[in-house]
Amino acid sequence: MANTLLTLLRKPLTNSLLSKTNNISLTSLYIQDVKYLFSKASLGLDGFSQQSEKIKLQLNNIADKFREKMSEYVTIDSKNMIFTEDLKNMVHLTENDQDIQLTVEMLKKYNKQNKSLRFGNYVFGPVVMRMFYVHNKPDLALECFKSEELTGIFDQHISFQLLLDLLYENQRYQEMLDVFQIISEKQLEGQKYPKNVIVLILAACYKLNNQESLDWALKLWTQLSEVGHIPMRRASTFCAGLAFNQGKPDIALEILSSVRNQNYTTVRNLKVVALAEIGRLDDVIPILKFVLSDDTPQNENVHTFNRDVLEKVKQAVSKSNNPEITLEFNRVEQMLIKQGHVSQTSLDEQLCSEIQRPPINRDFRAQQNFQPRGFNNEGFQQRPRRINYQRPGLSELV
Questions:
Q1: Cα torsion 206, 207, 211, 213: sign
Q2: Which of 43, 57, 138, 207 has the fewest other C-beta atoms within 10 Å?
């Protein structure tokens, strides 16, 4: 796939293809700015808020005195240590900018202390990043992530994900790409390209929606292909959507070919609109028909096409001046509408819809029915546990 994509990138478009792609409306997919990419629950933010309320209730009577004591402990001449429990409590007690700054100073001192004195397995990176996220502090989160005084604190995949998602929420897309350069050099747990991080980075490229971001995304995509990394479906659709928006439907189709399940709603819609854009209407009609043929009483999930996608197909059909194709498309379109297979949600909205939970990881550990080691909402490492995977319904795959 990498070689084919490289060939496409190096091969100049034919005049006929140029005439078609130059007329693409770059706003057809790029319409809405959806605020969140990963849901709060999937990032552990709900759990963090619950824990904060619990600790605030427990320390209600002594919270102010505790803050005063910690403020004394972080002074330059203080010889008092910052213990794990102190920092845990302060992270969850934060209510204003002063509290957050105190927490950062405590974290810096904590990180300087003799690490041999730490006997627990508490990891502060994800918890502190959740604090930044809850209080919407992208600048401070970025500053701390880059701080030499906090080296090693945020070296976890979930911390990367939280930081990038916070930047995404604040539409700091270019800074997301800059952060990725730092992340890719760390190679934690032998991974240079964490899957959720790749999703966020390609989402940033999609949102930037310019030629530079497309070049950046395709370079990354080629690197992923060369090392055998298989991006998650959402990463693939972001990259393909960006290629389409930038007038490269042929590249979009090549990227979509890497998705294992071609019947995902977003994949199917992108494939249809890209094929229509390059005049492959003979290939579009069977895809539209398949949704109708798959509409059985046993199938509880309704397969849909986005309204804006069908409109673009209709425009391509009209330009084709082919009576046979026009007749067949009109017939199929009416059946799709009648049977409820047309979604009023735009393709852009669907591409950027909130990810409710991490997609199934089908790597070796998943095949062994073990959940990868991670960090819970309170910062403790979770031990692997056996889980039973179920095939998600189509409504979960949108």
A1: negative
A2: 57
